[in-house]
Specification:
This protein has helices at about 15-35, 50, 55-65, 80-95. It has a single domain, classed as Orthogonal Bundle (Cytochrome Bc1 Complex, Chain D, domain 2), CATH 1.10.760.10. Helix content is about 45%, strand content about 0%. α3 packs across α4 (about 80-95). The protein is mostly helical.
Length: about 100
Amino acid sequence: MGMAGGVGSARADAPSPQRAVELDHLLRHDCGSCHGMTLQGGLGPPLTVAALRDRSPEALADAIRLGRPAGAMPPWGPLLNEGEIQWLVDRLRRGESP
């Protein structure tokens, strides 16, 4: 489910523009189904800039990659490549809503 390309970044592993649209959809619908459609919180905690401020990018990437075994969050690592995970982390840390 991963593609390389370059959107909004010079990174070689950044998603293509088409993949970025797919990742925005994932963020809005899949993440939003638990974290709230505006990512302000719901079943899962908020994914706002303020809520993520004290979390390192590495910890956020691990949470996406590995999920939360003690909670309801599934691991997304089998479906996303490392560049896509980092793209999602960067987007969340900048507060860019899909």
